[in-house]
User: What shape does this take?
Amino acid sequence: MKPWILAIRPRTLGAAAVPVLLGASLALSSGMSDPLVIILILACAVLIQIGTNLFNDAIDFAKGADTANRLGPIRVTSAGLLSSRQVLIGGALSLLLAALISLPLVLRGGWPILVLGSVSLLLAYGYTGGPFPLAYLGLGEIFVVLFFGLAAVAGTFYLVTLEVPTVSLLAGLQIGLHASVLLAVNNLRDLEGDRLAGKKTLAARFGLAFAQRENATLVLAPFFLGLFWIPLGYFWSSIIPLAALPLAWPMARACLTVQPDHSVNNLLAKGARLHLVFGLLLALAFFVQ
Assistant: This one.
């Protein structure tokens, strides 16, 4: 089982779980809750993340983006721990299970959830595969903000309440930007290898200085966006997440000087922690308005 645990990348699954829990917390603070719906959404989100990770593992190896000289965490296909066929089948089974679990959600949410779910399943493969792979076109950060931020938070809120208020979109944008840090940090570390493999991430396209500034901006932007909670009547949602600044500020400064080597992996761990802490603080703030 160890190769499969490595392949699904457990440390990345928070990117799928945190926005769902954030959307559920926002709905609960509004007086609405449906535990079964939330559990189903959470299961679908995690399974889609796992499927995306597995496809990414196999496809990046096939395209030459992951090699034995990789600076980041081990990838099972390039390391020979699992075959490309095994990993691709695992990814397909993850998405199939997600599709089956989502059927009650589609019945509840109607065509918007059918469209959102179908696109999510398609792009789990299309992130690195297919004729227009998002990660290879420099669209990875946009994908993450949209699906691990806006869609996850607002979609969860909608399935519980059948409404999509502005507050769910603002929360989704904030947590989506922090989720995109996990991708942008990876892209900074791998920019030289990605250039050789023709993977045109933003870091590979625009260089190290751009990638450093991009990461620092993504780390700090959600705190500035918190100002928009005040005119919406959510004062504490602007204030309480500031408690995560002691994690964010040193990370943002480190992003401005970090080099594409093994030291970037420390930033990856710090980014995951920031994403979790900020999300929990924002969820807590919804209950103290």
